[in-house]
């Protein structure tokens, strides 16, 4: 049976609507035909893709899927140490890149053959070459631990997009605010290109208002971002010009204040928050405007996904789950369940993702979940954003510390008194931050999540 791959899917749109815009970036616009203009004639081995420009990333991935055994895309801004760790996990033979020669040293040192994306260009690409099932290796975050490579296929990684990949006459315009080499970025990438829509990439760096303005000028109708990024988007004057039809929150738990703020700013848009992870795939989604998920999700199968709450932890069984890490252990157990490592709280007929088991702090023998404290801080009207973390202490083991970004123009002295009073009512003694630091901004990584301090 002939295997389906990304090139075949994209070429279908290209042949039907050759001039339809696939990508809009600060470098220009690119139609579907232009994304299929490179071909892979090399060996079937494992290949790295590391591109600065998303149009080159797209061209490389379309050329390689179905043509090599495995492909792994890396963000060029990854720390060199993380890249070296990733390169050690498989027998990669070459890297397809658009980086300048001076920036390819880490790949040269690893003995990889460096190929420029444009060197793959050919008018006589061999489309008759038999397709293989390519493994998609997706890096996990290396911010809190050594990065791993999660082993997906196109079917599991693009599971949601493939279910609704019929090309329509009236394309949507989706914005990409995630790193496209990570799980969340792939979801937006596939949702756009497999559906024949237009993907707008405003860049991952630079002033947020300029990025939002770029999206507004491009007529973006759909945005998926973390709750942290949405808070930043809402503060941008340019957000008032976004003609949004669909708002999606993922990557972090969606808190009620940000859901309410989005409803107020975009009353006509559909607002959905989802749970997904690199390992478990897309788990569940809800569009009722409330934080958390209905408890009934854990009682029956929804869209082929089963949810289980065991010992206050979330387990998922899904067809889009990855089965293993490259060179390491299994992800699913013998019954097909993935232990997500996320802690849940059941309350009022819903369950809430309140943090990671690995991030729990021990404060004098009491367990404190930093994300739970952060969400309480975000409920306060004067708080724009916050990050909560632990600091070693000789008496309690750990001290809870909170960095808080206040709304512009807020008096810090009165804010501190208000916050301390507010937190005393909402949190236990062990949960309450003993150090409140007011900062100008909260650092966010390229996955759109708050950077957690150690």
What report would you give on this structure?
With about 450 residues, the chain is of the alpha/beta class. The strands form 5 sheets. Strands 2-1-10-9-11-12-13-14 form an 8-stranded mixed sheet, sandwiched between helices. A 7-stranded mixed sheet has the order 6-5-3-4-7-8-18. It has a 5-stranded antiparallel sheet with strand order 15-20-19-17-16, with helices on one face. It has 12 helices and 25 strands.
Q: What is the mean pLDDT?
A: 91
Percent range for β-strand residues: 25-35%
Structural class: alpha/beta
Q: Using only CA atoms, what is the Rg?
A: 23 Å
Backbone shape: globular
Distance from first to last alpha carbon: 51 Å
Number of beta-strand segments? 25
Low-confidence stretches: none
How many DSSP helices? 12
State the main characteristics.
alpha/beta, seven-stranded mixed sheet, 12 helices, 25 strands, 24% helix
Compose a concise summary of this entry.
With 454 residues, the protein is an alpha/beta fold. It has helices spanning 6-16, 54-64, 80-87, 105-109, 154-157, 159-163, 183-193, 208-217, 227-234, 256-265, 370-378, 412-426, and strands at 21-25, 28-31, 46-50, 70-73, 92-97, 113-116, 135-139, 149-153, 173-176, 198-200, 222-225, 246-249, 270-277, 281-286, 293-294, 306-310, 313-317, 324-325, 338-347, 350-356, 361-363, 366-368, 383-393, 397-406, 435-438.
SSE arrangement:
Blueprint: H1 6-16, E1 21-25, E2 28-31, E3 46-50, H2 54-64, E4 70-73, H3 80-87, E5 92-97, H4 105-109, E6 113-116, E7 135-139, E8 149-153, H5 154-157, H6 159-163, E9 173-176, H7 183-193, E10 198-200, H8 208-217, E11 222-225, H9 227-234, E12 246-249, H10 256-265, E13 270-277, E14 281-286, E15 293-294, E16 306-310, E17 313-317, E18 324-325, E19 338-347, E20 350-356, E21 361-363, E22 366-368, H11 370-378, E23 383-393, E24 397-406, H12 412-426, E25 435-438
Parallel strand pairs: 1-10, 3-4, 3-5, 4-7, 5-6, 9-10, 9-11, 11-12, 12-13, 24-25
Antiparallel strand pairs: 1-2, 7-8, 8-18, 13-14, 15-20, 16-17, 17-19, 19-20, 21-22, 23-24
């Amino acid at each position: 049976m002939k295997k389906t791959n990304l090139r075949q899917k994209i070429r279908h749109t290209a042949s039907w609507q050759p001039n339809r815009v696939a990508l809009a970036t600060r470098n220009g616009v690119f139609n579907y035909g232009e994304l299929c203009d490179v071909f892979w004639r090399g060996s079937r081995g494992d290949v790295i893709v590391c591109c600065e420009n998303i149009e080159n990333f797209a061209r490389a991935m379309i050329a390689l899927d179905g043509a090599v055994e495995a492909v792994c895309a890396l963000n060029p801004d990854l720390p060199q140490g993380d890249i070296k760790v990733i390169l050690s996990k498989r027998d990669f033979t070459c890297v397809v890149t658009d980086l300048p020669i001076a920036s390819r040293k880490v790949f040269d040192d690893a003995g990889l053959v460096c190929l420029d994306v444009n060197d793959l260009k050919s008018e006589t690409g061999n489309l008759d070459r038999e397709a293989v099932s390519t493994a998609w290796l997706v890096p996990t975050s290396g911010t809190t631990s050594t990065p791993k490579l999660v082993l997906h296929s196109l079917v599991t990684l693009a599971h949601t997009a493939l279910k609704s990949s019929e090309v329509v006459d009236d394309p949507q315009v989706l914005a990409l605010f995630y790193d496209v080499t990570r799980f969340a970025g792939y979801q937006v990438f596939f949702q756009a290109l497999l559906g024949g829509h237009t993907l707008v990439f405003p860049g991952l760096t630079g002033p947020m208002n300029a990025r939002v303005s770029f999206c507004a000028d491009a007529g973006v109708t759909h945005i998926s971002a973390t709750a942290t990024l949405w808070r930043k988007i809402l503060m941008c004057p340019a957000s008032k010009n976004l003609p949004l039809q669909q708002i999606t929150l993922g990557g972090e738990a969606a808190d009620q204040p940000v859901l309410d703020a989005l409803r107020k700013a975009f009353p006509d848009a559909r607002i959905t928050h989802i749970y997904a992870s690199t390992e478990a795939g897309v788990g569940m989604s809800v569009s009722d405007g409330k934080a958390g998920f209905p408890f009934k999700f854990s009682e029956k199968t929804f869209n082929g996904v089963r949810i289980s709450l065991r010992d206050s932890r979330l387990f998922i069984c899904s067809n889009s789950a990855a089965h293993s890490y490259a060179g390491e252990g299994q992800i699913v157990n013998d019954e097909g369940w993935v232990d997500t490592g996320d802690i849940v709280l059941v309350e009022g007929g819903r369950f809430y993702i309140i943090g990671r088991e690995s991030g729990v702090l021990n404060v004098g023998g009491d367990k404190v979940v930093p994300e739970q404290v952060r969400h309480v801080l975000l409920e306060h009207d004067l708080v724009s954003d916050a990050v909560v973390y632990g600091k070693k202490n000789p008496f309690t083991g750990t001290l809870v510390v909170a960095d808080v970004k206040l709304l512009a123009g807020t008096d810090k002295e009165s804010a501190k008194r208000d916050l301390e009073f507010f937190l005393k009512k909402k949190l236990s003694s062990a949960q309450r931050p003993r150090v409140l630091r007011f900062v100008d901004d909260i650092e966010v990584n390229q996955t759109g999540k708050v950077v957690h301090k150690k």
